[in-house]
Design goal:
Length: about 160
């Protein structure tokens, strides 16, 4: 059954989830994770997307962000997913879909749940028993958010609650 159009609201954050097709692995090594993060950085600028939190799990991704213009949410995700798929397929000599259907986006108000959502996203590796502490996982926003990485290398935007 086809899904309806996405409801897009101004001044709202979205918890975005996308999975590998048939739950396949999306990242095999540091180079893959780094490629995804550089792609994320490029499309953040291109699509005026504010990123507040993320976690790259081996077979799925969580993002928490806010498009400055609601229509840019789909443009942002389409660009990130297409670009990463092209580099993944080229590197591993594959063809076809990398992602399982369209991405999920849940509107999040900038209130107490906003912070809870970031913690939920960053604790995913603990729930999956990949690490004992969220700050030990190198492919989430936890370290940058809690240790205030230098402004030049930041991927995250300042939270405007």
């Amino acid at each position: 059954m086809p899904t309806g159009p996405r409801v897009l609201l101004k001044n709202v954050c979205y918890h975005i989830i996308t999975r590998g097709n048939q739950k396949q692995q999306l990242f095999f090594d540091d180079e893959d994770y780094g490629k995804y993060l550089s792609t994320l950085r490029r499309y953040k600028k291109r699509c005026d997307f504010l990123l507040y939190g993320y976690c790259l799990m081996p077979n799925h991704i969580h993002l928490l962000g806010e498009p400055k213009e609601p229509k840019n949410l789909s443009r942002f995700m389409q660009g990130v997913c297409r670009s990463y798929t092209a580099s993944f397929n080229k590197r591993y000599k594959k063809v076809g879909h990398l992602w399982q259907g369209r991405f999920i986006s849940k509107a999040i108000a900038k209130d107490d749940y906003f912070i809870d959502c970031i913690h939920y996203i960053e604790r995913n590796p603990m729930r999956a028993s990949l690490v004992k502490s969220a700050s030990d996982y190198p492919w989430s926003s936890c370290k940058e958010r809690t240790l205030a990485a230098n402004a030049r290398g930041r991927l995250l935007d300042d939270m405007r609650l």
